[in-house]
Structure prediction request, 135 residues.
Amino acid sequence: MPAKPSVLFVCVHNAGRSQMAAGWLRHLAGDSVEVRSAGSAPAETVNPAAVEAMREVGIDITDQTPKVLEYATAETSDVIVTMGCGDTCPVFPGKRYEDWKLDDPAGKGVDSVRPIRDEIRTRVEKLLSELRSDI
Prediction:
């Protein structure tokens, strides 16, 4: 693992789960990790309930926009965390992969998104701890 690993969070719309995960990792890791996110079929905007849920814990993701998953982004990432993108996620030998089974916040209100946000934080904290021990 390089001194500054890169982590790519991927979900279908890149509007909820992957944006919250990227927000948590940026918040917790600072500039020690390169944080990326993308979607296999990106939405037009980040889910407002995800934005609100993250705002409640002091993390602003309003400057983020859903991005399409590009081959080069995945290829140059050290860790790829998938969250329901299925077979559209590219697989590269030698990469570390994790598949996080999480509820999709699409169409849900902030009350339903909070537990997803909290589960993502727990998983990001574990991932960050593992990354730091690998460096």
Notes: The radius of gyration is 14 Å. Residues 110-134 form the longest helix (25 residues). The CA atoms of residues 27 and 58 lie 9 Å apart.
